[in-house]
């Protein structure tokens, strides 16, 4: 059983007021494996019953703990079994009806986002998979809280290039169907390599096949706290001192997150799952991963040395977090979403960060090309090339990588998209105009690397 150091917790609470520390999300994972039926109406009824059974007090109890400990809990979320598996049992595979049922449940329960409108297709599609994938644009356009993800690659299976090309088209359609909202549908859709089943962060959260009936996963964030801790060090402190300070700060943040997570799990009478210590930024001033780089000594995110700074940050966060809990999971590390980080927005707007530099940074960060707006007239084949590149980084390096690209309808490089809230805003970034069409249209599967044969 973890022993909590009250002095460290009090110190961290003091940072809340000054440096934007928060519990970014409490995410309830719920298995829907027992909701299968040949009748889609029966599936929807079972989903409603089960979500109400486990989540009816989630928001209330989270608010109670937030008040008791004065620790902000920004989002309350649910993640369910990949819906391609659930809907596949139906004679009439009406995934739109299931999507609207999930969204309605989230509304009734007061949930901010519900994830799991997902499919795992790294080696190919089943009938349910293809039906779900093709329904994604309409599902995201006709709901408010639903999030979707599709895993198209893994270090064991390789890259399903048929799925990559398909998802490029789905991303385009998702943006086009929400053109009145700057392509918001694409902002709630992520394409993965090596997706993890206990990730509490959207849009990629789902309840994996090996997960329990129900569990509570915590996503903790505190880029402002880390930036402040680094800023307090002497400007001449070497990298060993710098890394150690980040580890100490991550330890404090994780300890607080575990306290909140276990208290909430106990109140809900469900198992505690994992704590995901991810430095997930927001558009708020001071809550920026990019500003951590500046505190380290870089003029701005995008300067030469940014990838090295991110690698050290990501590693130190994980080392500090793993010492504070036996159940660190999810993604854990540092996110670099362009639209959700004030410093990244500034760097991209000023041209300090290019698309290619962002891709290089994904080799060492927690996820990948995240919340990047590109011109709406970008061909699907070019988007497929972007996805393929990012999947290759994940496959070769045995890490999770992802693509959340927004081809903003009727907008061009230099314009911007505005989503509001945690999704923020972003400049439309210029991209490479060279064609990828003949390459991505080859189809089939890029084989897994030799290190996949390690069993």
Describe this structure in words.
The protein is an alpha/beta fold and 455 residues long. It folds into two domains: 30-193, Anaerobic Ribonucleotide-triphosphate Reductase Large Chain (Alpha-Beta Barrel), CATH 3.20.70.20; 218-442, Anaerobic Ribonucleotide-triphosphate Reductase Large Chain. It is built from 16 helices and 14 strands. The chain has helices spanning 6-19, 40-55, 58-69, 83-87, 95-109, 127-141, 161-176, 184-187, 223-231, 239-268, 289-296, 306-322, 342-349, 355-361, 380-397, 437-440; strands at residues 22-30, 73-80, 113-120, 146-154, 158-160, 189-193, 214-221, 272-279, 333-334, 369-375, 401-408, 416-420, 424-427, 445-446. The strands form two sheets. Strands 1, 2, 3, 4, 5, 6, 7, 8, 9, 10, 11 and 14 form a twelve-stranded mixed sheet that branches. Strands 12-13 form a two-stranded antiparallel sheet. The radius of gyration is 21 Å and the shape is globular.
Layout of helices and strands:
Layout: H1 6-19, E1 22-30, H2 40-55, H3 58-69, E2 73-80, H4 83-87, H5 95-109, E3 113-120, H6 127-141, E4 146-154, E5 158-160, H7 161-176, H8 184-187, E6 189-193, E7 214-221, H9 223-231, H10 239-268, E8 272-279, H11 289-296, H12 306-322, E9 333-334, H13 342-349, H14 355-361, E10 369-375, H15 380-397, E11 401-408, E12 416-420, E13 424-427, H16 437-440, E14 445-446
Parallel strand pairs: 1-2, 2-3, 3-4, 4-6, 7-8, 8-9, 10-11
Antiparallel strand pairs: 1-7, 4-5, 5-14, 6-11, 12-13
Helix pairs in contact: 1-9, 1-10, 2-5, 3-10, 5-6, 6-7, 7-15, 9-10, 9-11, 10-12
């Amino acid at each position: 059983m973890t022993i909590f150091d009250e002095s460290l917790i009090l110190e961290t609470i003091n940072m809340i007021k000054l440096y934007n520390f928060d519990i970014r999300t409490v995410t309830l994972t719920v298995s829907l494996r027992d909701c299968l039926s040949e009748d889609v109406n029966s599936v929807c009824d079972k989903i409603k019953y089960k979500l109400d059974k486990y989540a009816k007090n989630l928001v209330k109890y989270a608010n109670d703990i937030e008040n008791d400990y004065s620790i902000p809990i920004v989002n309350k979320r649910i993640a369910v079994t990949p819906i391609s598996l659930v809907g596949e049992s139906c004679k009439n595979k009406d995934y739109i009806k299931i999507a609207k049922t999930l969204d309605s449940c989230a509304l009734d329960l007061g949930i901010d986002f519900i994830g799991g409108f997902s499919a795992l297709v790294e080696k190919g599609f089943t009938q349910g998979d293809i039906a779900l994938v093709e329904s994604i644009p309409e599902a995201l356009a006709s709901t408010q809280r639903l999030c979707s993800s599709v895993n198209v690659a893994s270090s064991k299976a390789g890259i399903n290039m048929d799925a990559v090309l398909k998802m490029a088209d789905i991303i385009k359609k998702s943006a086009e169907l929400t053109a009145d909202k700057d392509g918001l549908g694409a902002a709630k859709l992520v394409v993965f390599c090596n997706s993890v089943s206990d990730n509490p962060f959207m849009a990629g959260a789902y309840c994996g096949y090996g997960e329990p009936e129900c569990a509570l996963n915590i996503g903790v964030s505190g880029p402002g706290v880390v930036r402040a801790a680094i800023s307090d060090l002497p400007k001449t402190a070497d990298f060993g001192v710098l890394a150690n300070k980040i580890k100490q700060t991550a330890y404090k943040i994780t300890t607080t997150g575990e306290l909140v997570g276990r208290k909430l799990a106990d109140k809900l009478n469900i198992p505690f799952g994992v704590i995901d210590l991810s430095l997930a930024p927001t558009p708020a001033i001071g809550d920026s991963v990019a500003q951590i780089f500046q505190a380290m000594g870089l003029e701005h995110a995008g300067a030469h040395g940014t990838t090295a700074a991110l690698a050290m940050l990501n590693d130190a966060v994980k080392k500090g977090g793993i010492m504070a809990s036996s159940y660190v999971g999810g993604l854990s590390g540092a996110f670099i979403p362009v639209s959700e980080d004030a410093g990244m927005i500034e760097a991209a707007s000023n041209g300090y960060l290019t698309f290619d530099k962002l891709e290089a940074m994904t080799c060492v960060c927690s996820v990948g090309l995240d919340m990047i707006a590109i011109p709406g007239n970008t061909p699907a084949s070019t988007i497929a090339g972007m996805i393929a590149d990012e999947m290759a980084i994940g496959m070769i390096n045995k890490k999770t990588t992802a693509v959340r690209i927004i081809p903003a309808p009727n907008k061009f490089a230099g314009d911007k998209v505005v989503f509001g809230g945690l999704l923020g805003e972003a400049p439309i970034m210029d991209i490479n105009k060279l064609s990828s069409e003949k390459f991505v249209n080859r189809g089939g599967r890029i084989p897994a690397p030799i290190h996949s044969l390690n069993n």
